[in-house]
Amino acid sequence: MAQTDNKRFFENLSGAGKAIAVLTSGGDAQGMNAAVRAVVRMGIYVGAKVYFVHEGYQGMVDGGDNIKEATWESVSSMLQMGGTVIGSARCKDFRMHEGRLKAAHNLVQRGITNLCVIGGDGSLTGANLFREEWSGLLAELVQQGLIDEEASQKYSALHIVGMVGSIDNDFCVTQRKCYLALVSALACGADWVLIPEMPPEDGWEEKMCQKLSAKRAGMKRLNIIIVAEGAIDRNNQPITSEHVKNLVVQRLGFDTRVTILGHVQRGGTPSAFDRILASRMGVEAVLALLETTANTPACVVSLCGNQSVRLPLMECVQMVRLWVYRGMRTRSFENNLKTYKLLAHRKPESELPQSNFNVAVLNVGAPAAGMNAAVRSAVRVGISEGHKMFAVSDGFEGFYKGQIKEIKWADVGGWTGQGGSLLGTKRTLPAKHIDKIAEQMRKYNINALLVIGGFEAFLGIMELLAARGTYEELCVPMVMVPATVSNNVPGSDLSIGADTALNAITVTCDRIKQSASGTKHRVFIIETMGGYCGYLASVGGLAAGADAAYIFEEPFDIRDLQSNVEHLTEKMKTSIQRGLVLRNENSNENYTTDFIYQLYSEEGKGVFDCRKNVLGHMQQGGAPSPFDRNFGTKIAAKAMQWISKKLNESYRKGRVFANTEDSACLLGMRRRALVFQPVVQLRDETDFVHRIPKEQWWLKLRPLMKILAKYKTSYDISDSGQLEHVVLNRPKQSEAMAAI
């Protein structure tokens, strides 16, 4: 972004003279503290006064010590904490006019006219009512002699921005918008799910038992049934977990256990995703408050895909009520539901279309958590589309060696939660073995390829594409799904496996910082993976609350290192006890992790001591996160649908022949949508020497990390959300699986 735009931000959007209050309301949720931290620090950064409102609306009504000015240090060490440290309470008083009058008086006394509310549907609706009544409330306060006319004029407008903080995820603009039970069923590959939004058909009991029995006959020893709170049947009768248990025991005689998760779901440390989402939303909320005018409607800030958005609060509330009244569901919910049905319930052979196409799937590059979920999804969607699916072991190396076999529906059962690559994966590229790969494709009559992997997969697709002129066997539809912890594949903002790696980094950094809880003034130097891509170091640093993150994409020298040491030294003179510095493994060939550790140790003598840790391959291992399981599942399903479409388009005279640019694509997340992009068109976007995209969206998050670490820096607001309107978008039947 041009420097003039940054100047415009810091001059025109100054928070000097403004007061912002932040509160959490309703049930607590993981990530609330990260949002509070971001609001406080961004507010202070732009020159505003920021206040905590303890205990939600009850604290606003009661006033006194419940409304306290926040400092930079008062939000230290809260990023990794679950729940909300400022308290959250449902308030009957605020529902009454007298309670809102007291709340208005308490805010005016402190000059607060900007309110950031973190909560669910009811909390945000209450905030908007408060805003609509504000002028009338001030008039009453003047009439009662509690404030004077000058104060009434000075604080005449109340500005409100909402952030959705709810584990139910039932508001119309929030990312990952569908209910816990359904997404959990997708993430764990549950055998059956019962949710209130989709009452099962009459006779569901028999169908469920038949499926469970068939699974046991197929040597499956474990079944999972997920019952949502509030599940009902077609007659509006409740379906409880105990009822389902008794049903299974009586009809099948299976040993059955009931586990009610309850508040376990509400507690615990927030994931990296929740911390990053909350931090971005918190900063966006402050920006929205600074830009608001008397005529600006109260808004909700969120992310759509990977982009910040602002939507009128009451449009969102009205949309939710319309959904409830009409029994409607969001497009995302419908797609999750259709995907679950497609992958969990196999149609009888007689009902499957007969395509006579053979599709091969393989993993290429380093293993990434979520690869197996993607393979499972691809295999089952392919079989549902009538294709014969083939699994290739050990990537392109296994391909040319003929390690290819048909893979069936049951073969991928239980793969969703498995880490690594069960197919086997290697970094071998196909160029030296093109003739043998073409021979294997001819032998097995492979009509399409799905390649799941990292940068080597991208290079491999390009090499296959280049050989089409020599080998007609390669003139088939090919699609790549990015899967790498480094998140360095061009054409996609996100890769399967990156979220799991971020969680590993975040959890490890939390533990490392906790190890020094009894030690004053310690700085940890942490090395992350990623090759030349600084995604893990930068975004992991934002999630873990790092003070600095050194990456290849942002060159640094000894003066920068010295400046960072001095900055940490100043922070250590306050109540800050621990510092965290991340370094990408290939950020600089001279300023190694050892060098930075020794420099910090020497320059910090007498103020802080240092420790270093190299995280290594622990970032690559472990079970995939729920995000990676669902992302892998849905993106692979979409890739298989594209393959089916291309196969039908390119089938002529009894054979498949596809040699156009758009017949070899990469499916990636771009801002708000999943997009198919011809691989050849991505060539100019790629730095092949360092194996990274030339432009990377997450670089815009680095100033945010610096701001939250108390550095003075310019902040690019080109991606800040603009006020949009809520659109009622009821998905057509044909779109059920097309849009994810």
Automatic annotation (TrEMBL):
Which residues are listed as membrane-spanning? Answer: none
Q: Which first-to-last residue range defines the signal peptide?
A: none
Asked if the record carries the keyword ATP-binding, the reply is yes
What Gene3D superfamilies does the database record attribute to this sequence?
3.40.50.450, Phosphofructokinase domain (3.40.50.460)
List the GO molecular function terms.
6-phosphofructokinase activity; AMP binding; ATP binding; fructose-6-phosphate binding; identical protein binding; metal ion binding; monosaccharide binding
GO biological process annotations for this chain's record?
canonical glycolysis; fructose 1,6-bisphosphate metabolic process; fructose 6-phosphate metabolic process
Q: In which pathway does it act?
A: Carbohydrate degradation; glycolysis; D-glyceraldehyde 3-phosphate and glycerone phosphate from D-glucose: step 3/4
Looking at the record, the residues that make up the Phosphofructokinase domain are 20-175, 179-288, 358-643
Organism of provenance: Cyprinus carpio (Common carp)
Names of the cofactor(s)? Mg(2+)
Annotated protein name in UniProt: 6-phosphofructokinase type C
**Reactions performed catalytically:** beta-D-fructose 6-phosphate + ATP = beta-D-fructose 1,6-bisphosphate + ADP + H(+)
Task: Give yes or no: UniProt keyword Cell membrane.
Answer: no
Q: Gene Ontology cellular component?
A: 6-phosphofructokinase complex; membrane
Q: Which UniProt keywords apply?
A: Allosteric enzyme, ATP-binding, Cytoplasm, Glycolysis, Kinase, Magnesium, Metal-binding, Nucleotide-binding, Transferase
Q: Which NCBIfam families does the entry mention?
A: 6PF1K_euk
